[in-house]
Here is the input.
Amino acid sequence: MSGDAPDVEARLRAFLASQLPGADGLEITGLRRTSSGFSRENWPFDAAWQTERGPESAELIMRRDPIGSVLVTDRREEFAVLRALEHSAVPAPRARWIDADGAYLERPAVVMDRVGGVCDWFVVNGDRPEDVRRAFALRALELLVAIHAVDWRAAGLGPVLGEPPPGTGPAAAAIDKWETELRREQLEPFPELELVLGWLRAHEPVAQAVTLVHGDFKPGNMLLAPGGAPREPVEIVAMLDWETAHLGDPLEDIGWITNPLRHREHQIPGVWERADIMREYAELTGLDVSDADIRFWNVLANFKLAVIVLTGVRSFVEGRGDRVFGAPNSLVALMFDLMGI
Amino acid sequence: MRPTPDEQLRGLRAVLETTIAPEVTAPYPTDLLATVVAALERLEGEWGTVARAMRDESAALDGLLADARGVVDGAAADIERALASAPPDWLDRDAARAHYETRRAHLAAVVRELAPDGAAAPDLWAGIVAHLRMHLSGPL
Here is the structure.
């Protein structure tokens, strides 16, 4: 057990007791903080308890807001999205309980089922044969299409996540959100980002649909079936990390996965590149996927990352965060490249 | 002055890498320690260049802001005041940073006014973009 785990265990015990009325003999084992996740604390653990029906147990994970994060998101939204996905074709962990205001767990937290599987950020460029990796990349894209096909209205996500206006509304809403974050977090003037903001405002694309957008779609946020021979298909067991999920333009996710910064996570040189992703997505969805629109979302993706870095800078400077960040200059240089200046 | 700041940074990093790191086994502290070591390494290379870079970039910003005075409306008076102010003591780090950041803030206002493409002042815009590109490859 490491760091503040004893305190966390006591808090967790009280929280679970509040969520399991009538349960006796609650036991928590294996609680530890993992190194994964920049924005939330991840605490896997096992729990066992007795009910009138007999013994019960669960493999769980608690995701808690850290004291200082690189990303300010709402656990209630994450919880609502996970609940909505239970009735969809998208594999995701089952959300069990939420401590929305941190009354028990000190800070807002969600407890969900811990799904078995392995994480491989660079699976599309790993050791498996090229055809297996390409098939995985296509399967991942199909998963993204399934996310975009979630009936968010029927699932009641409109009031929770906020529905942007049609047309250029989703793009404008995305710029507004990240500009607001920038204004709140920046510690110094950043004329480079002012220039990017002006460009984004002048190039807002018209959304062809408003869908559920994951916001951080990548193999690093997937759990894959462990084992298997190199030639066997790679199965996606669960899609994780829904904290930036929102309603918006589905091409935002395509801009995220075609971001040149992250090509090693999403693209196979000569086999599965930017143009292939755009063409396949267009074929799977019937949407127009233009270069101009994707370029806008590429720039927005890097703007968002730059703001996340600046949030980390403030958090560190104010003594709330424990990770050291430098200025996001390389991200801004990439944005200038994409903007053609 | 020995050890110099460079020598201290290098020595501290060596202590963390050779003495502390092997004793740290929990995943989160191990990951965090690696980021601290990387940050110290970055500091070794950059901290000594910051004061000079701030002075040089402030001078370049003054040139751009002088050109911008006649083009922008909203920020012109503030720019005029900033350009009339005396340069700081560059050995006073707080004063130097304030001087530099004031100029960066004025340039940000100019960019907002000329956005998205600087069509109202193409030459000035090209100079601003070139300056911002230069900034992105420097230590500040």
User: Anything to note?
Assistant: Chain A has two domains: 5-113, 123-339. The interface with chain B takes residues 2-3, 32-35, 188-192, 194-195, 197-199, 201-203, 322-324, 326-327, 329-330, 332-333, 336, 341 of chain A (CB under 8 Å).
